[in-house]
Task: inverse folding
């Protein structure tokens, strides 16, 4: 009985789709096919640009701050790699390996993230046309939420100061890294861990209260 009920439901859905197609007419169907093709091309173009250079795909989709953040992070990583490989202080080789590994990590994550953002943009436009429910949209990450964050300015200022220090190579920076580098890195990791842990806890409590 369940199979028969499902079959009848599927038949009703198919007949309803056929009726909608007849109402739209051939011109509307061609327009829908063109929009679908454009959406696929847009996603392919964003992925291709991200594969060429991390951040370009995000800029193509309108995520300017996120795209600039990817490009700036790679520049900052390259500056740090050149600095630590050129100065004459004793540092751990794993640090250089870690800085070098950040390039492929940022590259593949940029491609993955831009494809997810393209899916959101395509779905959001389709939702605006077809008036789809908000339940499916809630399951998708909002890539434009980062665009309204004030952390972008702080990130650029702090990163710019670090790049200036890496290129100028002041003596105090080398002394600080040699004597207090490990302690400073540990403190930064602890602060970041506490920040993200507190953030996730607050988000969990807010979701629990909402339910």
Result:
């Amino acid at each position: 009985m369940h199979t028969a009920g499902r079959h009848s439901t599927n038949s009703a859905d198919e007949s309803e789709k056929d009726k909608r197609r007849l109402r739209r007419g051939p011109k509307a169907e061609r327009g829908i096919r063109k929009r679908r093709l454009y959406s696929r091309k847009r996603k392919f173009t964003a992925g291709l640009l991200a594969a060429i250079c991390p951040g370009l795909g995000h800029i193509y989709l309108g995520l300017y701050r996120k795209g600039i953040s990817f490009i700036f992070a790679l520049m900052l990583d390259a500056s740090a790699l050149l600095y630590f490989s050129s100065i004459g202080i004793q540092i751990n080789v794993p640090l250089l390996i870690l800085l070098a590994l950040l390039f492929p990590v940022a590259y593949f994550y940029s491609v993955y993230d831009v494809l997810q953002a393209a899916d959101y943009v395509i779905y959001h436009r389709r939702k605006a046309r077809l008036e789809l429910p908000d339940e499916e949209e809630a399951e998708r990450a909002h890539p434009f939420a980062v665009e309204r964050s004030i952390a972008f300015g702080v990130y650029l200022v702090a990163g710019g100061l670090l790049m200036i220090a890496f290129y100028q190579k002041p003596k105090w920076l080398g002394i600080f890294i040699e004597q207090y580098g490990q302690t400073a890195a540990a403190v930064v990791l602890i602060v970041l861990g506490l920040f993200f842990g507190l953030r996730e806890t607050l988000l969990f409590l807010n979701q629990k209260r909402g339910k």
